[in-house]
Design a protein that fits this description.
The complex is a heterodimer of chains A (322) and B (501). Helix content of chain A is 41%, strand content 20%. Chain A is built from twelve helices and ten strands. In chain A, strands 1, 2, 3, 4, 5, 6, 7, 8, 9 and 10 form a ten-stranded mixed sheet that branches. In chain A, helix 5 packs across helix 12 (298-317). Chain A starts with a helix and ends in a 5-residue tail after the last helix. Chain B is an all-alpha fold. Helix content of chain B is 73%, strand content 1%. Chain B has a two-stranded antiparallel ribbon. The longest helix of chain B is centred in the N-terminal third of the chain and has 43 residues, at 95-137. Chain B is globular. The chains are: A alpha/beta (322), B mainly alpha (501). The interface between A and B is large, with 76 and 75 residues.
Chain lengths: 322, 501
């Protein structure tokens, strides 16, 4: 219910923005409702771009939710392919859905990915009174009895949160991956609530979703899915150092329409780099549990292509797509 | 004592001429936004988020403005419910049931003042509840798993039967239509699209607002066209506004009970203000019984949903502040605002940022008082906005509907869908089938199904899981009673009547 009502948010927002902003102001499309990661990306990056003077007018944020970002993607590809004043928030979810062909046949090469300037590390979390003390204990329990552990996560079945524990189990040599229980709820906080309440045994999500609960001592993070430990959370071990080499981060970045000139692309890359270098962004990253992860400009497209190919293979392995 | 100290801190943050001015402006804007059909509290807050940035407001000032708009819209939603029979926002849906009949009886002023007062009571009690109970109540969310949520939604549907219609079968049929529409879209538990026919616009299901605007506003336009404007039910005349002391006094217990019910519904994430006003209305209806006259313009039927939905609005702040889980659509938007201001709600917010939490609570109390002062004596000003002749108003309503719905996704597909719902609404009303259960089916059906599916995943398909905790058993008992009791009670109630005849 909440989500459907939320979609209404743009009602009137468009009207008021149309009056408030002039034609030359840049627009950032958050392909989801307010409150989520994409919305955060647009609002924070847009605000900082204006605050540090990278753009001379406040960036307008438009929420265009639908089909997990598919409606916005379609809108950009088919209707605003050469709009130089348009940026769109993207994340791992964008590439996951592109890899799973969830955007009705549209592919990653129909837009230009500008860059990522921060990443939300994947985490596997249990309640503080859980018997599982390490990632391996959890994995062993699932190996012994797949039905004994249920995961809760903020994405739907087959989404990025679902893939994280499956990647870990696959790496641990557990092949019967379809037996793993997973329920997709409305966001990470809801998934934690279910786990702390004892309805599910573990939660899979992003670091930003669990920060408050970790500080309050409600939950224990079994593993963070990064190359190295996250600054500020040095006591949390990585999956890699527990012998399960899985890196899964939810990067936060932008794409622009395919049809813009190279100059425009470089201009946005430059602005994004400025945001990445700003003190404001560093502050926002710490406050929201983001780890440094800066890939801006030309080589980011290559990273995205690699990611799409990897997730596509894995999704086929686990049977999410044919 | 600690609470008083904290409150003092809050007021010291929130009480300055500048923030007071923001509160008044926010309340005024919010009331208008709430009163306009299709624009609800969540839209209102979303519209104004960019303004807080361009004004360069700090965290407290932004929060004061937003919560004023939030509460203002919750107040304002009732105005068009009562005067136009079109809910200004979705929680005000239940207010149409008795508010509009009251207005038709020439008591529009009474209904508006009464609902304003009950809104105040509900919101005030909820804010007090938030102050005293927030840290404790946060634990309630931990007690509700899939099985409990399923039972909660079941309770809502089981008590739906006799609502808005004297024919239970028709109400049941209407709710089934709603449930069917709720099935459209990507199935959350398998990721597969259902009933979308490959259309990307249907992937997220039918937007609730498209349905409500179609079923209420567009259907009304069709009736207007059919009768050449003569028989349109729109356009109630409001004479003079006086304070109906007797009604207020008579409904004091109703307001208190409805506030309690609404507050609890608001605390549960995903239940929200709509369920709060619905449960409050149904509770009062069953307490009043057959003689209560619910549905025919009973003052209690106006007081209950308004106290309920405003209390739910306050209750919804509890999980948002303590868990970071929004309890309703609007709190999800407020959550977004907090995040942008670099405030991360969660279990530590109360200790880490007391000035934000208590500033927010103080601004809620301020907004509430401002709204009461604004809504009771000044109700005529808001009514003026809606008091234009039907031949002006209806094209206006149509225009607002089209613009509002178009801006949801920027696609004409939703407009076609809205007109389709208008046709459906017209047909249903011709057949004397109530449209409110259709709306509730669309609104709650998806959540109810998700809860059931999650429960089945967790239990490996064992249905006994649904009755595995005391809370779920209690809700099931209430649901079964709510469904069966009216049938038996009707028999009991009828017999003495027959003897008397």
């Amino acid at each position: 219910m909440t989500h459907r009502i939320l979609k209404s948010l743009v009602t009137g927002a468009v009207l008021s923005l149309g009056i408030a902003g002039s034609a030359s102001a840049a627009e950032c499309i958050a392909p989801a409702n307010p409150g989520g990661g994409w919305d955060f990306t647009c609002r924070q990056i847009g605000k900082i771009m204006f605050d540090i003077g990278a753009v001379d007018k406040p960036v307008q944020v438009t929420n265009m939710s639908g089909a997990g970002g598919g409606l916005a993607y379609n809108h950009v590809v088919s209707e605003r392919n050469d709009d130089a004043d348009l940026i769109i928030a993207a994340s791992s979810a964008t590439t996951t859905r592109l890899a799973q062909n969830a955007y009705a046949g549209m592919t990653a090469d129909q837009v230009r990915f500008v860059g990522a300037i921060g990443a939300d590390p994947g985490v596997i979390v249990v309640a503080k009174d859980s018997p599982f003390q390490s990632l391996n204990e959890l994995v062993d329990a699932i190996k012994a009895d797949p039905g004994s552990v249920a995961f809760a996560g903020g994405s739907a079945v087959g989404g990025f949160d679902h893939l994280k524990p499956l990647m870990i189990l696959q790496r641990a040599g557990f092949t019967d991956i379809t037996k793993v229980k997973y329920i997709g709820v409305d966001g990470g906080a809801d998934a934690i609530t279910q786990t702390v309440g004892g309805f599910t045994q573990a939660m899979t999500g992003d670091m930003s979703e669990v920060v408050g609960f970790v500080k309050a001592g409600e939950v224990r993070v079994l593993a963070v899915l990064t190359e190295e430990r996250v600054p500020g959370f040095d006591t949390i071990p990585t999956a890699k150092e527990q012998g399960l080499d899985v890196v899964a981060v939810n990067w936060r970045g932008l794409y622009v329409p395919k049809g813009v000139s190279d100059d425009t692309f470089n201009m946005w890359a430059e602005r994004l780099q400025k945001v990445a270098d700003s003190a404001e962004w560093k502050e926002a990253m710490v406050a929201n549990g983001l780890a440094p992860f800066t890939k801006v400009g030309g080589d980011f497209q290559g990273y995205v292509d690699g990611l799409v190919a990897e997730i596509n293979t894995m999704s086929k392995d686990i049977g999410v797509i044919q | 004592m600690e609470i008083l100290n904290n409150l003092a801190l809050g007021f010291s943050v929130a009480l300055s001429p500048y923030t007071l001015m923001l509160a008044v402006a926010g309340c005024f804007l919010g009331t208008i936004i709430g009163a306009l059909p299709g624009l609800g509290p969540s839209n209102g807050v979303a519209i104004l988020i960019p303004i807080t940035f361009s004004l360069g407001l700090d965290a407290t000032a932004a929060l004061v403005l937003m919560t004023s708009v939030y509460y203002g819209a919750m107040y304002g939603g009732r105005i068009s419910s009562i005067l136009l029979n079109i809910p200004g926002d979705e929680p005000a849906l239940m207010t149409t049931l008795d508010g509009y009949p009251m207005a038709k009886q020439g008591r529009a002023g009474d209904a508006l003042v009464l609902s304003g007062v009950s809104s105040f009571v509900g919101a005030f009690l909820a804010t007090v509840g938030l102050v005293i109970l927030a840290p404790m109540l946060a634990r309630v969310a931990y007690l509700f798993g899939p099985a409990e949520y399923f039972a909660l939604y079941l309770l809502a549907f089981c008590t739906l039967g006799g609502m808005a219609s004297n024919n239970q079968a028709k109400a049941a049929l209407a709710s089934c239509i709603g449930l069917g529409i709720a099935m459209i879209g990507v199935d959350n538990s398998s990721g597969l699209p259902r009933l979308t026919y490959g259309n990307m616009h249907l992937m997220d299901g039918i937007d609730f607002l498209v349905a409500i605007v179609g079923l209420f506003a567009i259907a009304e336009v069709f009736f207007f066209i059919e009768s050449h404007g003569k028989k349109s039910s729109i356009g109630v005349v409001l004479d003079k506004v006086r304070i109906p002391w007797k009604d207020i006094f008579d409904t004091k217990w109703t307001m208190l009970r409805a506030s309690g019910v609404g507050f609890v519904a608001g605390i549960l994430p995903g239940a929200g203000a709509s369920l709060g006003s619905f449960l409050a209305y149904m509770t009062e209806k069953s307490i009043a019984g057959k003689d209560g006259g619910f549905g025919t313009g009973a003052p209690k039927g106006v007081a209950a949903p308004e106290a309920g939905n405003n209390a739910a609005a306050g209750g919804a702040l509890v999980p948002m502040l303590t868990l970071g889980v929004p309890g309703s659509g609007t709190t999800a938007v407020l959550l977004a605002l907090l995040m942008t201001l670099n405030i991360t709600p969660g279990p530590t917010l109360f200790t880490d940022r007391p000035e934000v939490v208590w500033g927010l609570i103080a601004s809620l109390l301020i907004a509430n008082v401002v709204l009461l002062l604004m809504n009771v004596p000044m109700v005529k000003i808001f009514v003026k906005i809606l008091m234009v002749p039907p031949w002006v108003l209806l094209p206006g309503v149509t225009m607002i509907s089209f613009v509002g719905i178009y801006s949801l996704s920027g696609s004409y597909f939703d407009l076609l869908l809205m007109i389709l719902f208008g046709v459906l609404g017209y047909a249903l009303r011709k057949l004397d089938i109530p449209t409110v259960p259709v709306i509730l089916g669309i609104l709650l059906g998806g959540n109810m199904e998700n809860a059931l599916r999650r429960a089945m995943v967790l239990s490996d398909g064992d249905p006994m899981y649904l009755w595995s905790t005391p809370i779920s058993i209690g809700l099931w008992v209430a649901a079964v009673l709510g469904f069966v009791a009216p049938m038996f009670l009707r028999g009991i109630l009828k017999k003495p009547a027959a003897v008397k005849d």
